[in-house]
Design brief:
With about 290 residues, the chain is an alpha/beta fold. The protein is built from six helices and 13 strands. The chain has a domain at about 135-289: 3-Layer(aba) Sandwich (Rossmann fold), CATH 3.40.50.
Length: about 290
């Protein structure tokens, strides 16, 4: 999966991971260098699970103690025996890296060499190198004003938004113990996929909703469901795309919008938000193909 991070009114071409970013301010929005100042850092695969029939979830132990990232960023993924460099969004939180020295990626199978390697050759203790980049992130500082977030994901576009969601959960957990820390607002996640089998991280997301009722909420949408939705999922699943009315009710001056998914979805939703009067500097998006 190659990623392209763009802002409204910004276009970028080419076949590689060329990215430009929307900016709000230097902390909450996307002012960052395209890549970190550090060269690629070593890491070792320490966990592999099947997140769905088509997506593998990798856990990587990072050997470079100076390696950091912001919630929502991606990594260039260097495989020793593969000439092509991969580009994958991180799906874990910065806090997991800080505490346990690991990060996670969820990679959908396709013919692109890095993704194909992950699905066919990658094993425990495989060594790869990582380099962080991207202007698509949420990284508020203690003195920043509280904001609410609306996260809109399509397909595997959930990856960077799940990282942001986990980061938000860390803020909520720390608010009581860190009286001078950042005061997090509410988060609403809209997540659309073809069917319930392709809704990644479902159990994790349900866990966050139960842990932070009213602070973290989620609506799941499926667009090509061919089988009956299981009973325990039915209260949370809507068949069909995310409606304009649903999105419009979240419009406010204190809300930031993060969108990640296929380019047509990005273009239609960002245009819709602008028609609602949402300032373009409150909309961040990352396209993938």
């Amino acid at each position: 999966l190659l990623l392209q991070c763009c802002a409204p009114g910004v276009s970028s071409g080419g076949q590689g991971p060329t990215r430009a970013g929307s900016t709000r301010n230097q902390h909450q929005g996307g002012v960052s260098l395209p890549h970190s100042n550090h060269g690629p850092g070593g890491s070792k695969v320490c966990g592999i699970t099947n997140e769905s029939e088509t997506v593998k979830r990798l856990r990587l132990a990072v050997t470079n103690k100076d390696f950091t990232f912001k919630a929502g960023q991606w990594v260039d993924f260097f495989i020793p025996e593969v000439a092509v460099v991969g580009g994958f969004s991180i799906c874990s939180s910065p806090g997991l890296l800080e505490q346990d020295g690991v990060l996670e990626l969820a990679v959908k199978h396709n013919v692109h060499p890095p993704a194909h390697w992950i699905h066919t050759q990658c094993s425990l203790d495989s060594e790869v190198a990582l380099r962080v980049g991207g202007n698509f992130f949420f990284d508020p500082q203690p003195a920043d004003s509280p904001v609410n977030l609306v996260l809109i994901a399509g397909g595997v576009g959930i990856n960077p938004l799940f990282s942001i969601l986990l980061h938000v959960a860390d803020f909520h957990r720390n608010q009581e113990s860190e009286k001078n820390g950042y005061k997090m607002g509410t988060v609403k996640l809209y997540y659309s996929a073809k069917n319930t089998n392709e809704l990644l991280f479902k159990n994790n997301i349900f866990g966050l909703m139960n842990e932070f009722p009213g602070k973290i909420t989620c609506s799941f949408h499926v667009t090509q469901q061919s089988s009956q939705i299981c009973e325990e999922l039915q209260p949370y699943i809507t068949e069909g795309r995310i409606s304009e009315k649903e999105l419009e009710k979240h419009v406010s001056k204190d809300t930031l919008w993060y969108i990640c998914g296929p380019p047509p979805m990005i273009e239609s939703i960002s245009k819709l938000l602008e028609n609602f009067g949402v300032p373009t500097d409150c909309i961040y998006f990352e396209k993938w193909w």
